[in-house]
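Quarterly update, task 2.4: iron/sulfur cluster-bound model.
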Amino acid sequence: MSAHIPLSSIVAADGDRAFQCKPSATLAKTTCPYCGVGCGVDVEIAKVAVEGELRLNKVKGSSDHPANFGRLCVKGSKLLETNGLEDRLLSPKIQGQEVDWHQATEHVASKFTQIIAEHGPGAVAFYVSGQLLTEDYYVANKLMKGYIGTANIDTNSRLCMSSAVSAYKRAFGADAVPCNYEDLELADLIVFVGSNAAWTHPVLFQRIERAKKLNPAMQIVTVDPRQTGTGEIADLHLGIKSGTDTALFNGLLRYLQQHSKLDQNYIDTNTQGFADALACSKPWSIEKVAKTCDIPEADVETFYRLFSDSDRVISAYTMGVNQSSSGTDKANSIINCHLASGKLGKEGCGPFSLTGQPNAMGGREVGGLANMLAAHMDIDNPQHQQIVQSYWQSPAIPKQIGLKAVDMFDEVDNGNIKAIWIMATNPMVSMPNRGKIVRALEKCEFVVVSDCVVKNDTLAMADVVLPATGWSEKNGTVTNSERRISRQRGILPAPGLAKHDWQIICDVAKAMGFKQGFNYANPSEIFREHAGLTAYQNNGTRVLNLSALENISENEYNRLKPIQWPISQDSPEGIARLFADGRFYTQSKKAQFIAIQPKAPEVATTDAFPFVLNSGRVRDQWHTMTRTGKTAELTGHIDRAFVHMHPSDAKDNGIYEGDFVLLSSGTSSKFTDTDKPKKVIMPVKLQQQQRRGELFVPIHWSATNSSSSAIAALYSDATDAISGQPELKHTAVNVELCQFGNHAQLFTRTKLNHNLLNQIAEYWSEVTIEQGYLVYFSTNHADVVSELQVNLPLCSEWFSSQQKNDLGEVRNTFALRDGRLDLVLFSDSNAPQMDVNWLNSLLQLAALDEQQKSALLRAMPDPEFAQGRLVCSCFKVGENTIVDAINRGCNSVDKLGHELKCGTNCGSCKTELQQLVKRHIFEENVTILDPELNPLQTGT
Ligand code: SF4
């Protein structure tokens, strides 16, 4: 949905941000907010008929942005559909009552001041986010560390890449990604470790896919317990047992030494600690690695040979490595292999941590983590404390690290933190041990939440909510995974009373009495100060150096082109590759090998909790769905949470495709209060690519859109001892079959009250569709229709049909409101699956004819609505249509694209198309009696 904004205010918002592209429209160049690839986006702003209003007309990838060169994935290409003003938080509220900004700011400032006066600065905390821009982050960190005087500010990036930060710092003495996206195209071998880049970093994945097409000699290896879409371009998949990565890379280090593949000169000249690291790797023979990782020895050997024999190797890793109780060790075990073979600081080489969030890197740069000062300086370094404090001229500077995310919420739970300000994040859904987070925020004396949306699980816990600007209004900078700083430009003015995060923070700071440090007129002033701090007393001691930008004018800032730091007087155009000279930022200037002793994940499976639970993202959703869940364009691909389970595990447990299961863990079972969202109930999808004994669930669903799909309830507080990153890829769970008498699909034009859904269903999950909402629900209630009739009096005419079939009773109901279709309920004992397009076509009509009414009562759609599950979101092509085309001879992704257009726009669905082609061509040629014997599907 496009936003309409008065012309007068858009011009005032940021006069320099846009340049003329044609007389009737302007083109704003900005950055996508949906992942760490950091794609450049061109937004066309056009005048519409209504005098004085503008429309964000369309988006396309910026052809001149070095991250994406014109490409966007499905999330990026639907940016405008997720940018509407419905669901926006537009005014501050105290205890649910709208107030003006003066009241809200004074209230937040006085409560924080009072609690600090009574209990000290350690009694307050900020929990911030990789969604913030660098300028927002900078002032939040400055307020907490330099003025309030505690380091109790941590970020949700703690949950996504803090282990990568710790590992870089241990090895290089600096949190510095050595390589860049171009290196991925130049590599001879790319090893994806714990990364489903095809879905999580799609544009980057497509760059790699293209590079491999141009250079078929390029080899791809995937290391992941699941065989995901990324594996579609892999030459080798290592489906390792969850948590065994360090064994695999220790074995590689040993192999390099045993096969004379070390770069001894590099080791001798540029590194320290090799002997100890090698000693730790000694026990890890190929045989032992294969046994520990539960993969074939031949595959281990093939991988080791590929790594050893390839000159240019990139290891690209994400949450599968980081979200672990040994995440830092996992990353260092990878870095060790690059150091030992000298595959670092050269074209096409390096250990590459891909960040999840759009500005996780920017947050790291300005001290968003509780264990860092600003500008990559260390809290426990007295010299760094002095540098930051003297630069800020601030009254305070912390001498010890603050509370990392999990510890922070523990202290809220213990009552030691009495005020917390949560900015642009939804910890009720993303933090582990949801039961504890609920309890902690309920108990907390003062909870402030600033966000751009009006409703999410965390906002529901707030004493004060503060409306912040969103993507199209925010104005500042972000840094992507390859250290590239890009401008996110304020295209539209703030709606309602919303303010930029940096303004909200500065206003509160000033109201707290800190008059001097927070008088900024615009984000460029903050950016200059940040750049100045990176240069201040640097003298080549810190790699993060933006000295060439510390004096840029506002005009230059507005026109800043994407650029990779460091950006100093010596390198005003930025630096693409770090450590080419073999000098690092440790005390000795040498890179450090780390001796790694592999360690099992903290929570082991037991008889009571026999399955390993893994979690991650799906293709079209972002974080907790507060934005990407708004549009049917992105909800059609996967419309509710699910549990992937191997068919043999399902068979052993008497579970069939589509059955509902209750998942429980040692953590969730501690919370027995029935009104807490402790239960996780989801339908099962059988998946050959799933390892036996392991399950996978998506992370995005919450209590805001479902009764029982928030999986954070199951995860324990286990964290990495060094990074503090929670173990969100591994916990032990039990699976119990849930029995429901009836399953239903409920289509409605207007959103139903969730209390009503809780009343009629044990399980429900709601999703936006084009013409309203679709609710899946499962229930043991005898007469749902009567309850709906009582609760929905505006629906005046009700029609129902009831039949019996072999499986039980089928009941189809629809209701009209003012003559228009308003509600349709398909209910039976066997989970109905009506085509959403059919219902959309009827919900948009002013009235139904008799044939349409009869079709609804018989649940018999017109055959044209038999597309099946949506695969290509851009051209709305469903699975059934694709399978038909494959059966007609379209036996490649290219042919499908030619015939149906699917996969020819953003390309995000191409790996799924590939999987469908493989599966259906294979099924055509082979009669599969036992799916376990299908080599394509098991990936063996
Ligand atoms: Fe946005 Fe997709 Fe690019 Fe990520 S890959 S920045 S989600 S367009």
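Highlight for this quarter: Residues 746 and 825 are 4 Å apart (CA to CA).
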